[in-house]
Structures are given as C-alpha cells and as structure tokens.
Amino acid sequence: MVHRLHRHGRTGGAVAAVAVAGLVAVTAGCSDTGAAADGLHGGDPTEVVRRSADSLVRAGSSKARTSMEMASGGTRVTIRGKGVYDFERQIGRFEVVLPQDPAGDDEHRPITELLSAGALFMKNRGAGVPSDKWVRIETRSLSDGNLVTGGATDPLAAAELLRGARKVVFVGDERVGGAEVRHYRGVADLRAAAKAASAGQRGALGVAAAKGFSKGSVPFDVYLDERGRVRKLRQQFAVAEANVASTTLLYDFGAPVEVRLPADEDIFAGKISGQ
C-alpha cells in the first residue's frame, strides 16, 4: 500500500530508545516568488526565515543530501544520507551510510529509511532484525522528534523548526550548488516552532519541546534562494553529552518521489538485540 501508515503493536519508547542508542553507539565507535521572494530583498529577516517551510511545500519535492556530525570528547564522526522528499505529502526515502568502525575493518550496510508524518521506518537496521524486515518507530515517541534519531534529519522537520526562528540576522549573499542564495543566522525556539508547525509535524516537535530536547533552542544557518526555498540548512543540537551538527542540502526541486511504506507483515515483531 502506497503512502499509508501502518500501526504496529511493538513500537514506542523502547524501540525508539534502541534506535537512538544503536546509531549513537555506532558513531561513537510553478512560480512561487510571491511574498516570500519579495521578503528576501529588504524584508524582515525573521519573517522571511519563518516562511521558508511554506516555500518548500509549494515547491512540492526535491532531492536531498544530509550529513550529521557528532562530537563527543575527542571523537568526531559523520553519518551521511542521500534521498528524495515530498514536502506536500510529508514522505521521503533516504539511504544512510554509517562510518566505519575505528579499526576500519567493518563496513556497515547502508540503512534504508522511509520518512513519513508520524513514523520512521528503517531497514538493514541490524541488532538482530532480519534483512527483509523493517523497524517502525513512531516519531512522537522520540524525544527529538526525529531530528537526529535516524542519522538523517527529516528535511521538512528541519524546515518546520524555522517557524520558531528568533534573533535572525542577514549575513550576506552567497552561492550554494550554483544557486544565488541569501544567508541568514539565528536561533529556533522549539516550543514556538511546535505551535506554528503543520499538522503532520506538530506532534513530534511538540514532544521534543516538552522534553527539553536540545535545551529548547537550536542555533541555525539557513541559505534561501530567490523563491524563499531552503537550499542549505545547518542546525546545532545538544544531545546528551554530544554536540550534533546537522546539515541538509536541497536541490533538483520537483524531482519525482516514489515511496511505498511497508505492510504490517513486513515490520519486525521480534525483540531487538539490546532491548
């Protein structure tokens, strides 16, 4: 069944906790120029940034590259992802590549992730999960709203955070991926973002705000094109004892997105190692 979420009895906080622990453990070892575009030239920077998520929805879809740099103590690792995302339907598919183990002799299979409003599906998750099965995690069960759990920040969730933008300043004109962009810097308030978010993202961001994820605020640098669309977004999160920098690059707007969410029988119902 395409574009339909399936509920499953063995999801929730316990599975979510395993997903978070697993990734962290591995790493430790049409024209829409309109008002948004007009605001890019002399408009209030805060309002321009807050409207950027709407500009992405009007764009429909895009390809995306993500990177997540985790630094803890003297250790720094990077998780990379590549995929496509449909901002109207709030659904996407990514291949996430984990770094090699410190010894360099253990290459990890890419994790396939399906992102949707309300759930994260992961395949090749490991930890005792059969290779033909998916792990399903409800994003409302995650203390971070799936901003860092999967190792690839949900592009729309990242942009929705900007609805809570404060103290925004215009840095300057630059270029990203061959496109002329305007660079803005500020801090996003999680609670304000959750209140202003779209229906599909409000629940997860609300949980993240309520649980004090990243101390309730997220510093960011965002680069917007002439249509007010996010081309590059870098956000800084505080996670436990680590600092996480998530970078999202969006390009090829209007790219086709074909995602089929797993059927109930394809979702793993057993015990995950370490649970």
Topology:
Blueprint (H helix, E strand, L loop, with lengths): L12 H16 L5 H6 L5 H6 L1 H8 L1 E12 L2 E12 L4 E7 L13 E6 L2 E5 L10 E5 L16 H7 L3 E12 L2 E11 H7 L2 H12 L6 E8 L5 E10 L2 E10 L24
Helix pairs in contact: 6-7
Give a description of the structure.
The chain has seven helices and eleven strands. The protein is globular. Helix 6 (190-196) packs antiparallel against helix 7. Helix content is 23%, strand content 36%. The protein has helices spanning 13-28, 34-39, 45-50, 52-59, 155-161, 190-196, 199-210, and strands at 61-72, 75-86, 91-97, 111-116, 119-123, 134-138, 165-176, 179-189, 217-224, 230-239, 242-251. Strand 10 (230-239) and strand 11 form a beta hairpin. Strands 6-5-4-3-2-1-11-10-9-8-7 form an eleven-stranded antiparallel sheet. The longest helix has 16 residues, at 13-28. The chain is of the alpha+beta class and 275 residues long. The chain has a single domain (13-29, 33-266), classed as outer membrane lipoprotein receptor (LolB), chain A.
